[in-house]
Amino acid sequence: MKALITGASSGIGLDIAKYLASKKYELILVARSKEKLEEVQQTLPTKSTIIVMDLSSEQKVKELCVLMKNERIDMLINNAGFGDFGEFTQTELSKDIEMIHTNIKAVHILTKFALKNMMRHNSGYILNVASAAGFMKGGPLLSTYYATKSYVLSLTQAIHYELKRKKSRVVVSALCPGPVETNFNRVANVDFSSKPLPSKFVAKYAIDQMIGKERMIIIPGIKMKLAKFFSRFVSDKFILRMTYKFQKKKLTK
């Protein structure tokens, strides 16, 4: 069995790599930092290949697809992504566009590429790392990030349903965690306002739920499950107001 993991040098991607290695998967690890990927590679008990690549470049993503053309990929983990904190008019446009390319375009291209190959074999798994942010009607102070994760969640749900209609054995799932102990907040220039879940727990939970239960949406932790449930009983305006307050606390903490 072989798995391709993007954003594999840290956080959820790294912990998924370690967990899959413990299950004897051969790994293809993709990230920007060669040094970090080599460090990860040295810790893994199974065969692994590293690919140093910036997935904010559409051309590079397509090059990755070409590299993988003759590989039998049994599992794709679309984990690469980042956020940026601030009012929409105050964030850097260049970083917004980079985020859209990484969080949306790379996920879209790789999912389509892998899915076509998996459908030919009628087997395989794709995990798109979205966020609990994907459920919201907008994310003040993290507007572009929330919008990208809504796209990933919506796309994944549609594909999952299409596959079920075809009675396909290919499984496509969206991982939608709340705060997780990763480098996300450092990159986004904020601090957590609530206790995050351990990345190792989220990684194992995601893989077990996808393989064992073929979940369309995977939500680690009871807090996020409850938040999603109760959100259906309040107005969009209320959710936007509460989201703003929650995100504001991250900046002022």
Write up what this structure looks like:
This protein has 253 residues and is of the alpha/beta class. It contains nine helices and seven strands. It has a seven-stranded parallel β-sheet with strand order 3-2-1-4-5-6-7, with helices on both faces. It is globular and about 50 Å long. The N and C termini lie far apart (44 Å). The model has no long low-confidence stretch (mean pLDDT 91).
Q: Give the strand tally.
A: 7
| Strand residue percentage | 5-15%
Q: What general outline do the C-alpha atoms trace?
A: globular
| Overall radius of gyration | 18 Å
Structural class: alpha/beta
Helical segment count: 9
Can you tell me the residue ranges where pLDDT is under 50 for at least 5 consecutive residues? none
**H/E series:** EHEHEHEHEHEHHEHH
List keywords for this structure.
globular; seven-stranded parallel beta sheet; 253 residues; single chain; alpha/beta
What order do the helices and strands come in, and which of them pair?
Blueprint lengths: L1 E5 L4 H12 L3 E6 L2 H10 L4 E5 L5 H10 L7 E4 L14 H29 L2 E6 L13 H23 L4 E6 L8 H5 L10 H15 L3 E2 L3 H10 L4 H17 L1
Parallel strand pairs: 1-2, 1-4, 2-3, 4-5, 5-6, 6-7
Helix pairs in contact: 1-7, 3-4, 4-5
